[in-house]
Amino acid sequence: MTKEELLFLPVGGCREIGMNLNAYAYGSGANRKWLILDVGVTFGGPETPGIDLIMPDTEFIETIRDDIVGIVLTHAHEDHIGAIAHLWPRLRAPVYATPFTAHLVMEKLREKQLDKDVPLNVVALGDKRSIGPFDLEYVTLTHSIPEPNGLVIKTPLGTVFHTGDWKIDPNPMVGKNFDEARIKELGEEGVLAIVCDSTNVFEEGESGSEESVRENLIKVVGEQTGKIAITTFASNVARLESCCIAAMENDRSVVLVGRSMFRITDAAKEVGLLKDIHFVEAGDAEHLAPDNVLYLCTGSQGESRAALAKIANGSHPNVKMGEGDTVLFSSRVIPGNERGIFDLQNSLAENGVKIITDRQEHIHVSGHPCRDELRRMYSWAKPKISVPVHGERRHIIEHARYALSMQVPEAVTPNNGDLIRLAPGPVEVVDEVPTGRLFLDGNRLTPEHSGGMQERRRMSWSGHLSVSVAIDEKGRVKDGPFVAARGFSETDGRVADESLDQLDEAVEKAMEKMSRKDIHNDENVERALLRSVRKSAEGLFGKRPLVDINILRV
After folding, report:
1. pLDDT of 229-264, one tens digit each?
2. Residues 66 and 167 in one domain
3. What's the domain range around 264?
4. Helix 371-381 vs helix 393-405: angle between axes, to the nearest 10 degrees?
5. Are strands 464-471 and 546-553 parallel, antiparallel or unpaired?
């Protein structure tokens, strides 16, 4: 008889920071039941032209869909909940979330007209409940968003503590304090494995408290004249409150600028946060003196369509900033966003705006644990196994090494798709399942290795040529061949006539060389034109562009 096993499977979130989707299984063979933790996204970049959202490929998860007993969300950051409305139709399991997270998830479901279909269960902070063979307990931690939860997952083969995203903040300013006492109790009760955040494993010391940021924001805002804008992550409600208090302490009214600011503050007020904070409409703020205005803006990562980018390029309808004004970046630079952020800051500086970042002033702290916080977590939880997640490969390997140095008996360094047996026996990768990424391309989800994305990348790098020719039933060329070119560097923004002439000449010669037999065969015509135009383009531009051949039989 097959033994029961406790398994862990990262589908997203290992080898990257973001796009978190983790699965646990308990049982034997066909009797296994699965629990999903988080369904997140990451964001597209220059290497994925036309793609805004990227999410884990659920190909394997869909094969065991009937055995999924629930989808549990640890907190409301996009890299943990952003894919729920896109992927739920493929998973179709009950969803569990605490109130703040549930409010934001419901918004996403309404946008996709799924709010009547998805069984969304709102769970109280600190709640306990059984979902299939898993006994769950929510443990309140601290992070850069309200209601971050660690999940205690109890099974007959042992207890797993899945931390989600966390830090140790002695005074988080918003929400409940870090439940150190409960984690110490878990350590005494016995923790088989900790599945733990690796983001800041290379950072010495501690991440710091929101309280110190609030104190310094009050000071820094008080030192400025003119209009002030603060850009930060909208999801960090404690930071939003700190910005508002800094404004009020310095006789400034707060104006929200950017869709996410409204969405998050609405959710916060819905669950009883930001109760005493009041905002002014952007249009009304135009009548206030510059020294009495503070704009709270989206766009800290240089996003081209966010509020701060529109302010910087002068296209925002209500907010103008220039000489004598100040923008505070109360945020960190997420790796990969450097160019966009620096371009944004340069645009602001060009307009005479003073820029203050966390390098000049203490106006930001991380939401993830540094090494001293990790050390304290391990000393409290006392796990037998360390399973680092939420990190690039270097983070995960270093986290495992660090855990072993703290006398944790075993550590594993998972990749997405590694099916890891936590019990019984020693921790071990027992299988590998298919994983990958899904791109949200317009309103369609497509696999990352689809031909369409490969062609799009090629066009963005090498340009596009289209060849058209009309041929009659006797094999005579009635019109063309003509070449149209797109995406090549020319001084006037289009390919010069002389270059097009050379391309036209190349395909005309190819047609002239064709035998009467070949000219009646579309595949032979296409092959000859393709070969000639590519060779000519490579000589002209030094590139091998994507080429389309259009043959019209008349």
Report:
1. 999 999 999 999 999 999 999 999 999 999 999 999
2. yes
3. 210-356
4. 50
5. parallel
